[in-house]
Amino acid sequence: MHAPDGFYSDSLCLVMDLACAGVLTYSLKKIWRQINTPEVLLASSVGAFCFALEMANFEVTRGSSCHFMGGIFASIVLGPYLATLVMTLAHFIQVFIFQDGGIMALGPNLVTIVVVSTFGGYYLYFQLKNLVIEPYGYYISAFLSAWLTLLITSLTVCGMLSVCGIEKFSATISPMLGPHVVVGITEGVLTVLLIMGIQALSAGHPPDPQETAPRSTRKVAWALLGMALLVSLVISPFASRSAEGLKVFALNRIYLRSHKIVIPYQAPVPNYHLPGVRNQKMAKILGGTLGTLLTFFFCFLVCSAIREKAGHTAGKEPADLELHYRQHDQDWQDGQIRPDRQHT
What is the C-alpha separation between 137 and 140, in angstroms, rounded? Predict the structure, then answer.
């Protein structure tokens, strides 16, 4: 879904830039004075993990590749507002450090990669969970929302191409939707397994008010960061080198450079390969590990700055992830974020 520069029309890019700026501002307003010290660490680890997941392209139908999104997982764990901020920061690292996606196409890419999955995906999760009998509601709704979100993202790309006048909507459905049907099933299973793992890690650790971050939150955060590094070290070097389905379709139809403005930019670590390293797999390992750590620290610095600027004092955290989810659901329904917290 990382469209390069020259893919969408200039007018669409401008509209999407403004729309994403509005969504990000709204998300910041929602988490202002709400994000606390434990969530800073957890959000940073979730951002790093989603970054690592998106590096792991794998071959699907018609010789094209796809990658996991991770946005619905981030929104379930963090809530849609904080997840939007974290996923946006991760995408900035992808674009400006690794040149994965164009600068002019920043707005459309954020819509497909971030906004649709964090807000649209969480809305699906919230609605579906209420239709499923417990105790399996979390798992079934997580699977279905992750799968459906990926399909909706594909259709969103088709719609934007149609709006630009580049290709008819009907002509793009098959090459875009087909591969992501398979990837969506895999992402759904992965999302469920991750949630089960986090619940297992967070169980049995009641929060201590004297702790800066409860043990359960710290344990989950460091586990996610460890898995992110594992993905960048072990899985991403063996990822498929085939172009993503979106780029394959573009090259086959030869309609790149559909708009006039293309920003010349050379990223320091293009294509996730660290320059100066001759061995391609080692270059990918080093580049991916660097990106994972950069994303973690970038999210940590930004979230910490927001917490300090807002003057928030860390509050009491839920004892387990199930209560954590229930609070997100109630906040989504009430239009608030965690009303039970203490504020200064």
Answer: 5
- Four-CA torsion 210, 212, 218, 222, nearest 10 degrees: -150
CB 79 within 8 A of CB 125: no
Locus of tokens 């594992």: 230
Are residues 25 and 330 in contact, defined by beta-carbon separation less than 8 angstroms? no
Distance CA 148, CA 124 (A): 8
Distance CA 86, CA 92 (A): 10
Give the residue from 329, 57, 58, 76 showing the smallest Cα distance to 191.
76
3-class secondary structure, 214: coil
Q: 3-state DSSP call for residue 59?
A: strand
Token pair 């098959």 is found at 174
pLDDT in tens, 12-27: 889 999 999 999 999 9
Q: How far apart are CA 115 and CA 108, in angstroms?
A: 10
CB 217 within 8 A of CB 78: no
248: left (phi over 0), alpha (psi -120 to 50) or beta: alpha
Q: Which of 71-85, 120-134, 148-162, 195-209 has the lowest mean pLDDT?
A: 195-209
The residues with which 58 forms a beta bridge, in sequence order, are 66
**Which pLDDT tens digit goes with each residue over 52-92?**
988 876 665 555 556 678 889 999 999 999 999 999 999 99
- 338/329 Cα distance (integer angstroms): 9
Least Cα distance to 202 among 180, 189, 187, 217 occurs for 217
> Model pTM?
0.83
